[in-house]
Amino acid sequence: MLDVCLLGTGGMMPLPDRWLSSLLIRYHGRMVLIDCGEGTQIPLKMIKWGFKTIDAILFTHYHADHIAGLPGLLLTIGNSGREEPLTLMGPPGIKKVVEGVTVISPELPYELRLIELSDLERAEACISNLDIKSIPVDHSLPCLSYCIELKRRSKFDVERAKKLGVPINYWNSLQKGLTIALEGKTVSPEMVLGEIRRGIKVSYCTDTRPTEDLVKFIKDSDLFICEGMYGNEDNLCKAVQKKHMMFSEAGLLAKQGRAKELWLTHYSPSLTKPEEYLEAVKIIFTNTIAGRDLLTTTMKYVD
């Protein structure tokens, strides 16, 4: 199971009833956070999942509303008792940015491991048994979108294993992808495993114009969380100029990418009632939800 919490849904500045856009994903107690604008610690505290087991923080880009909350959060993670290294990932420039904001949080009881991801091509990493992929998007400075995938092992074929004479104590190793030597012969995983089963895919996209690459990147997402900076179509020119997205454009991406569900996020501060524009998006993509702070779901494998 994969737990997903939309910590905040605001863009540009936090509001009294809306924190800045941030996403928290939890698997087997370990967590990955995407973006950390000012005030992110507060919804993190409210969700009560803890701080100590955040293993990675991913940044879409380095505008303040996506990173200004980092130094305070790092100190809080330290105060929670963490001593393991913490991974920070983002587009080029992460070393300079992290050095700058951590001037006010210089003493941490754990190591910061920085991973710079390309802003020209796709990149991949694995954190806490989650596959993390990134893709460059179209914003006013280097910016990335992410997808988090929880892979699923192929189903073990007991009958095939028995026919091959594989003792039960070897079954676990084969299911984990290991090849074994058995009485002078080699047994490989594909000899006893069935077809690859569908896992869970969550895609996250803010601060960009829609692109064809994004459609391919988010393809078949179980949950697509996407920027909807403006709901009123009268703001299209502003969205193009500032390289943000409309509700309708997020809906079209979800439809073209065959996502199962769409959560809108990263609202303009002027958009006080995003739900008023929801029905127009549902005409494009039916299963659309106007994201709200602390919106949470638990995702399970589908057989």
Largest sheet, order of strands side by side?
6-5-4-3-2-1-16
What are the segments in which pLDDT stays under 50 over at least 5 consecutive residues?
A: none
First CA to last CA: what distance? Answer: 13 Å
Based on CA atoms alone, the radius of gyration comes out at 21 Å
Shape summary: globular
- Helix content range of the residues, please? 10-25%
Total E-strand runs: 16
What order do the SSEs take from the amino end to the carboxyl end, as H and E? EEEHEHHEHEEEEHHEEEHEHHEHEE
Alpha-beta content class = alpha/beta
Largest pleated sheet: 7 strands, mixed
Rounded mean pLDDT score: 94
Approximate strand percentage: 25-35%
Q: Can you give a write-up of this model?
A:
This protein has ten helices and 16 strands. The protein has 303 residues and is α/β, with parallel strands linked by helices. The strands form three sheets. A seven-stranded mixed beta sheet has the order 6-5-4-3-2-1-16, covered by helices on one side. It has a seven-stranded mixed beta sheet with strand order 7-8-9-12-13-14-15. The radius of gyration is 21 Å and the shape is globular.
